[in-house]
Predict the 3D structure of the following.
Amino acid sequence: MAAAAANGAGGGGGVPRPTNPMVTPLLTDLYQFTMAYAYWKAGKHLDRAVFDLYFRKNPFGGEFTIFGGLEECIRFIANFKLTDTEIIFLRSAMPTCEDGFFEYLSSIDCSDVAVYAIPEGSVVFPKVPLMIIEGPVAVIQLLETPFLSLVNYASLVTTNAARHRLVAGKPKNLLEFGLRRAQGPDGGISASRYCYMGGFDATSNVAAGRLFGIPIRGTHSHAFVSSFMGLDDIIDRTLASSDGSNKCEDFVSLVQNWLARIKDAGSLRGTFRETNLSELAAFTSYALAFPNSFLALVDTYDAAGIRLDSGDLAYLSVETRKFFRAIEEEFGFIGFGKMNITASNDLNEETIDALNKQGHEVDAFGIGTYLVTCYAQAALGCVFKLVEINKQPRIKLSEDVSIPCKKRCYRLFGKEGYPLVDIMTGEDEPAPKVGERLLCRHPFNESKRAYVVPQHVEELLKSRCMGYLDRMRPDHMRRLNPTPYKVSVSAKLYDFIHFLWLNEAPVGELQ
Ligand SMILES: Nc1ncnc2c1ncn2[C@@H]1O[C@H](COP(=O)(O)OP(=O)(O)OP(=O)(O)O)[C@@H](O)[C@H]1O
Ligand SMILES: O=P(O)(O)OC[C@H]1O[C@H](OP(=O)(O)OP(=O)(O)O)[C@H](O)[C@@H]1O
Ligand SMILES: O=C(O)c1cccnc1
Ligand SMILES: [Mg+2]
């Protein structure tokens, strides 16, 4: 099992700081510091603890999740160090705590912390730890809230993006347009980054383009279109070819000539309606500014062309395509019929699915609000639970039973090459072997078990490549009634969980 050990000294040993400078050791809940104090008072602060970070249920009614946020967690622990001013603030916030505690706090870093993790971008399932974090209990406790804050939304929005990619299909261009609608600047930046991880092609967010190297794309807005009154607004009418070899002195007249030709074309009669001259001025002006990447927002007055942002997107995209093809045929402009049609306006999984069913001609979807706010599910609900302290396994019984012990986790693949089941074992158990029959048990349901003869075994929680979406059996990934993927434990771990469970659960007395 490969571990990422953090070097907290000297500015993170070359590991960059978290992207968001607000991510500091104080970005945690007060109770992490009060517990750290109580551990310290009890002389327990150096006890060796193992915590699992996992979630309990897949989001969006689906049967899979994509893990995001790991890199930021590693950046955080690599640079973990409380500054003098942070210590002064903590002293004022916890006035009853002894001085020695603050001296201890100012001395800590995460050089004694080990993180075992599934690679970011992997398909993951409930109960299996995404990260196992091991180290001195007081320090690990301080990591709980920042880690959950860095992983919860990241994984949720990555999953949301992947679901939009699955419904849109591979050839479509997916553009994330959510910055203006996201939950503040950090929500917007995170959304752009993790939607790209989840399978989007580009973002409109310029800062995210700079920070993460994500391709940035955009069209123009209704304001640009409605800011023009008519063709007289255009002062400089010259258009030169990019190599300077050709020059059109009056592009506006050229546009007007073409407009007349299109109107006269017999084959276009009936499909071509009156032109709004202020809209024509806006498009002409935009073409003069971007002659090699022209794109027109065409629905400010009436829908006819290239980014559609209202109305029936299926119908309008089909009509637009017909018109483009007719122009190609009438005037012999090779490729005109294939011109890009982008659609936006409150799109989400359901609307894209509806458009697919109706038939449409959209090449690119621009998606904002529903994507970045994760409108269909507010949070993933990742948790951070103690599973072992000083080599003693721990279990949490209330609400949802946690799976004790420092574990190893494997993904077992079947004959058809798809993953069949994830299995958790105790740390010292032998790894599952290819071709060897293995009993996989549901962690809590006694009757649910299956023998598996794996054709291929991958250990989870160690660094490895991504690109899992394509490798999953399609019925786990479908939108409607997806098949649950199986998560199991070894027979030995099953027996141990239930032994510990009975041991920890008090026997009531009836009188
Ligand atoms: N063919 C279609 N099938 C299903 N949903 C569609 C189809 N075309 C558009 N939609 C969706 O229907 C909704 C249309 O919303 P609404 O009626 O508020 O928009 P509009 O009136 O066309 O435009 P505006 O945003 O200017 O008000 C959007 O969520 C859009 O994504
Ligand atoms: O619809 P979303 O999925 O959130 O995608 C982003 C939206 O942002 C822009 O709208 P704008 O801010 O101009 O407002 P409007 O479309 O609501 O008028 C754009 O026209 C999209 O409709
Ligand atoms: O470039 C666009 O078309 C765009 C960008 C952000 C939001 N809506 C649209
Ligand atoms: Mg809109």
Residues 443 and 494 are 6 Å apart (CA to CA). Residues 137-168 form the longest helix (32 residues). The pocket of magnesium ion (ligand 4) is lined by residues 309, 345-346 (CB under 6 Å).
